[in-house]
Amino acid sequence: MASSLTKDSVTPGTPGTEKTFFGHPRGLATLFMTEMWERFSYYGMRALLPLYLVAPGGLGLGAGTATAIYSVYLSLVYLLTMPGGWFGDRVWGPRKTVAIAGGVIMLGHLTLALPSSGTFYAGLGLVAIGSGLLKANISTMVGQLYDGPDDPRRDGGFTVFYMGINLGAFAAPLTIGTIGENVNWHLGFALAAVGMGLGVLQFLIGSRHLAPHSSAVPKPLSVEEKTSTLRKAAFWAALAVVFYAIVGFSGHYTLNWILVPLTLLGVIIPVLVLTNIKRDKSLDRAEQSKMSAYIWFFVAAAVFWMIYDQGGSTLSLFADSSADNSVFGWSFPVSWYQSVNPVIIMALAPVFATVWLALNRRGKEPSTVVKFCGGLVLVGASFFLFLAPLGIAEGGHKAAAMWLVAIYFVQTCGELMLSPVGLSVTTKMAPVKYASQMMGVWFLAVTAGDATTGLLSIAGVDLNKTGIVAAEATLAVVAGVAIWMYRKRVKELMGDVR
């Protein structure tokens, strides 16, 4: 939680020392609000997306196609964090990149608000691009507010920032979801644009409180690099335009011409990035060993996110068609289920942190490997739990809303075991040469998981069938047990990292 340090106890010259935000540099308030509004717009649109895609008043697509589009969109958001970080490091600097990213996201939501299927996909693309640019750079600016990694307020600052994420994620489905489902879909998307607009406005007003070097470009491109990059980008853009023009004018274009390449990229790029790092001859033996261990965590995380992120697609579509979305006779919009995860995170994150500290003092805190195994087993258990409402629906009845709440609860407990640990182990095991890139590599695990879901949907696999759900649940549990069985070997590969 927030540090209780006062103005007099902080290091002189630290940005924002003249006034504080819960004992932290004042710039944290700017970044907190920016991220809160960005997450408000992102999660609000995300809660509406699969429902709009299948709704008769929306695009009226099949559940498989809707899941594929949703999964591809999520995979792109996380895939684009790597080039987003590159832009912050080499082109615009973090502050300018975040400001531009917010504008792109707002434009994307406004495009989604237009009542046209043609502009809809362009809007999705803009939101994905803007989210990738923003996500990679705003956390960097949070770190820049503090006097180096040893500043005692640093961890508390990131905790406060994380609460902003979950506040936005909690409020979004309750407002944007309600308006989108009950009033007008496009009005809901427009409300997401308003939220992002408020985020951009307060970021521009409050940017004077950020660290001065957040405006600097850490490693600016040379003239030669800039020319080469523009030339390559122009070549690939022209190639894509020509290719899709030929496909379109020949009358062969379908949505799969976009979905299939993007899902394949979501699987191939993570593999290529990890392979490139692993084969780097300049890494010493210890770094090579840690990367071998990290691949275990990466694959485990990909399996986890493949199942976890279906909470917004497979589970949401099931709730829309086969659940009794009411409590004590009071009905609520399907999109409200997406508020369950953030509220549970806000309630349980302090509990998990307290438990880990208590166990640590007794020398009994589970290792990183064991926590990962627990996260995988829990997300697998959530889909075994999903078999119950599926069975109820197959019997011709509506499944109770609390079945879905229970599934989200189990998944969130799994997230609290795996996600924070994954972020931590990524920074600890990163080779020095790739220190600034490894957080983007961690996000590629989400990309790989969501892209796999997209490929299954494109292939015609019905993810709401009992057999498929049971197979995914079994995969997660088996993966968790397998890593647990080889935990000693993984610990050896990790070297001095614990």
From TrEMBL:
GO function terms (MF aspect): dipeptide transmembrane transporter activity; peptide:proton symporter activity; transmembrane transporter activity; tripeptide transmembrane transporter activity
GO BP, sorted A to Z: transmembrane transport; tripeptide transmembrane transport
TM helices/strands, residue ranges: 43-62, 68-86, 98-114, 120-138, 159-179, 185-205, 257-277, 289-308, 340-360, 372-393, 399-418, 439-461, 467-486
Record keywords, A-Z: Cell membrane, Membrane, Transmembrane, Transmembrane helix, Transport
Top-level lineage group: Bacteria
Polar residues composition bias: residue spans: 1-14
Record localization: Cell membrane; Membrane
Pfam families in UniProt: PTR2
GO cellular component, as recorded: plasma membrane
Gene3D superfamilies: MFS general substrate transporter like domains (1.20.1250.20)
InterPro entries: Dipep/tripep_permease, MFS_trans_sf, MFS_Transporters, POT_fam, PTR2_symporter_CS
Membrane protein topology class: Multi-pass membrane protein
Segments for region (Disordered): 1-21
Chief subcellular location: membrane
Family per record: Belongs to the major facilitator superfamily. Proton-dependent oligopeptide transporter (POT/PTR) (TC 2.A.17) family.
PANTHER family: PROTON-DEPENDENT OLIGOPEPTIDE FAMILY TRANSPORT PROTEIN, RESISTANCE PROTEIN MDTM, PUTATIVE-RELATED-RELATED
This protein's name: Peptide transporter
Originating organism: Streptomyces coelicolor (strain ATCC BAA-471 / A3(2) / M145)
